[in-house]
Task: structure prediction
Amino acid sequence: MILGLGGRSLGKIHGWLAVAFEGAALLTGLWIALTELGAAHPYHDASFVWLGLPDGTNFVMGTLVSPLGALMLIVVNVVGLLVVLYSNEYMAHEDGLPRYYAELMLFLAAMNGLVLSDNYLEFILMWELVGVCSYLLIGFFWRKPEAASAAKKAFIVTRVGDVLFFLGVFIFFSSLGHLTAPPTLAGTVASTYPGTSCPASPVDPSWSCLGFTFTLPNGNSDTPFLSAGAALQAANYGRSSWLPTLAGLLILGGAAGKSAQFPLHTWLPDAMEGPTTVSALIHAATMVAAGIYLLAITSIYIGFTLTAAVVIVGIGGFTSFFAGTMGLASPDIKRVIAYSTISQLGYMAMGVGASSVIVDLTNPLADATLNASGVPMFHLFTHAFFKALLFLSAGAVIHAVGTQDIFKMGGLRKAMPITSTAMLVGGLALSGIPPFAGFFSKDDVLGLTWKAATQDGSWMLYAFFGFALLGVLLTALYTFRLWFLVFSGASSRDLPPADEGHGHGAPAALASSSASEAHGGTKETPAGATHSVLASSSAPSGPAHSPAVHSGPRDPSWIMSVPLVVLATLAIVAGFIPLIPGFSNLLPGLSWTVMGECVSHCPSGAAFDPTDAMLGGLSLALAVVGILIAWSFWGNGKVYRIPTGSALAVPHRILLRKYYFDEVYDGFATHVILGISRGADWVDRYIIDGTIRGIEEIFSQASKTGRRLQTGVVSNYAAWVVVGLLAFLVFFLYVVPWLVSGAHVSLTPGL
Amino acid sequence: MSVPLVDILSLSGALFALGIFGVLTRRNFILILISVEVITNAAILNFIAFSFYSPGPAAGGITGQSIAVILVGLAATEVAVGLAIVLALNRLRGTLNVAEAIQLKF
Result:
């Protein structure tokens, strides 16, 4: 399947070939996932030894269909198929389409390989492949300097995380001696600690040895990652836990880079320079999902220590709030959605962290079956659909009006009914309004975090939970700011005839759109002027989209609409997916609750949880408040901008400049790193080179002195020859016998 | 009647010292060349002497004498090369004084 996905097709039909390949991949992925639903043990094949070392260490390329992997297969391939289909119209006017589809297919193939890999080494290979594909696709419009530098930025920033990830995996490897464990968990522990009470084969469902209780998740006895985790757990039992904590934090670093978590989030908004389809893919199914997936499998199969888990909750919770504030200010339709992705990824990371707080690696009494990483993965699952939906709708809007500045749009609801409805569904799902998918999953993540906070009792966890709640409010606020600005309004904001716009608009649109990147809403543009600029906005100013329309914006053709409708449907029903029997196999630890009323996969005991009901109500209320605030500012065609000089202008400016993170990183690069480089250069120049030059100088001086022997007179040379000969004779006739006799070995006894 | 070995070796040593003295003190290239020949002949004399006094014809016998013959031939080639250098030097510098041929000085 993976190879089939990489099908590189040339000619006019490459787009449809890609659709066919991806469709086949989806069917295969669904088949695998459905098999997984009914399977007692995950499919696992680790027969191919990629690299065998003489000491018996084997690096294996294997296939493991873990529950989470099967879930990811569905997400990746459903979203992938729809995006590829959508691309057939959206990208139709671009150059380099074979390259585009080849990269897209490689991207999806790498992601599929990633979720099917059975060890960290293979995981890293696929992880890097995903990274390089994202680099290629973000830089698809490589003639645009912004796109090229955004691609570089994405690559470099994620690389910072990758290095941390490598280091984390090195720690695993050096602690365990392998990245893929022998077939069974018990066998690993027993062979690592011979002579203990550890059984040689797993005992279903749990057994105790070395003071630990080992439990098989879902009764699976063949779970390689787990064996590594248990051995690490056992290896560190009774000792300081700094090593697993460090490994966990390094893994978190890798995931933060890939999933754009604070403080490595800066690449994601810039990645908007790529085609919108690529943004949809990166944000929903591939790139950023990889980081969360990494966290989730590590949490299940190895586990985080309490410190690491709290840090993960903190990073996630803070990011969810922090990205929301930036989303509030951005004037770019795609960037707003990008910030919402960062924010939602924060929730997912927070969920993994919270479930890891509950199942603390350093606590021998923790019950591994309580690991609830299925909860954030459920959010990833639903988020994939409504985020892809939002991006593809945004793509349709950009395709229709030719700009990305939301202040230049408005009143598009009448002209683009399908798109506006699709985006409304996506926005409601994102904001967490029932019955849309985001409500169920986000509520579960919040509930899990609350549970972790109450269990641990640390004030930090409560603080991060508070951040996450504020994030809910912000999410609703910026999402509907976006929607109202783009779609609402009466006919007064309808587009004038297009020929008028084409006559004089192009330079103005280009100038204003580039200016809006830099200054955005702080520009002093009266509302009326905004409306007139709208007339010119059908000239190309986005990433080189030639507008497909000449009679005002309208809904795209079926090629682009079908993915929108499918995704909108999924965004509605995905929240109910856990009701499908057997789905809990794919989502460990998820109990499907609605307002505290547990409907499916309930933990034994409580059917109704008043705390959860309260939390659900609270987040719902916050979301509604957010939407109402958005309505009061931007609803019904109103265009509210922060006036310059007001008290809000300064924070607004800070938000627009993304908290000056780019400037700080830039300053860091140009001053600190350059300073270090200069220091290193000085050391190289004066210490190392100096040493070499000093040695050179010694010989140079010696030869200057020595060359005076070279008189050029043959007789003198001959004299030296004789002197040498005499020295030779003296040495061998007197010195050597003296030395030998000094060593009490008499060569000539009696003489 | 035979000359004692010590006498021959003393003569050889004297010739060698004389040759060295000549090489070191003479300035004329031809005289140096002659001195080198004296040194060579001192060595040849040694060979012949040891050949004469070696125990039995099978062990040493003819070996030393044949080396002596080869060395005579070698000395001839040496003279040929040396004289060629003398001619070249004379043509180039107009003198045979080695103290003046000092281009190799530092």
Observations:
- The mean pLDDT of chain B is 84.
- The longest helix of chain B spans residues 57-93.
- Chain B has three helices and no strands.
- Chain B has one domain: 5-93.
